[in-house]
Amino acid sequence: MVSTAFFTTALSAFALACVAQVQAQDVANTTIAAFEAASLEKAGFLGCSTAPRKAGDRRKDKSQLKYATYNVEFLFLQGLGRLSCPGSDCPWKNVDMAKKHIKQIAANLHQLDADIFQLNEVEDCNVLNALVRELHALGDDTYKPYLVKGTDSTTGQNSALLTRVDPSVDLQRSDATVDVPVANSKCPSSPDDTLSTEAGKSLSKHFYTTFNVAGFSKPITVVGTHLLAHPQDNRRCVEREGQATIVAQIAQDALDQGNHVIISGDMNDFSEDVPDRNNNMPISNVLGIMTGTSFINVGEKVPQASRYTEWWDKNKDCVYELTEVTFYAIVRYAQ
Description:
The chain contains 6 helices and 14 strands. It has helices spanning 11-23, 32-38, 95-112, 125-137, 234-256, 286-291; strands spanning 3-9, 64-75, 116-122, 144-147, 158-163, 178-180, 198-201, 206-211, 220-226, 260-266, 296-297, 310-311, 325-326, 329-334.
């Protein structure tokens, strides 16, 4: 019998971002030309979606499987999307700052010590390899990176894995699309009592794969995703519900095959049934769609007072306050 532990984290990265923004004032006058000279020579996108022929298991304790999801906030080195990052469009104004961020994320991961990390806001496998090197410097050489390129060309962000247990199949993506609003939408109507409609919405940042982990009676399918931001925006509400519908279908297909299933990531929304520390309420049915009747939100296993994963510095004073925390990073599990 293998126990399974789930936890989520995002606070360290957001705290680091705030510090970085303060530090960035020291480099605010750096010219674009100087930045370009200091930046990496762009090597292009590097993927690492292929599962090994023989999956390894490098867990320190094979009596348990510890799983975590972590938004690592623009874990970038090159700036392969349309945004300037490192640069003016993210907290890391130059490559040195980006490298310091990678080092801090490695320290956080080392402390958390999960067997499988599902990461979000990752550029590519070049930066994941840099993260692995930092972990090796901390004395841990048990992790391998996996990432399949998404379709978010604006930010260049992707969802990824850093894991001690290798997947048994390559990382995959779904090309499915949905028309919005979906049938079970809870998004607010516009003033004329209608919802904006749009056909063929897809899911830009996600992957799914399957693990065969010793001690489990069935394979474990993992669906990692990062949904559209701004949980109180009416238009994005219907789009995010569409994305959630695609996630739910991927998960249900794996469940129908007899697998255990984990859905994790940055959902950018709130739960009506499992409220966070500050009782933030959704305007959407995003988490309801993904939970359905087959899944549980593991946030319910955490006392409400401790139920938060994200700090949004609403007044931009760089002062951490518990009234500014929310529960965005969700793990959903079905046996």
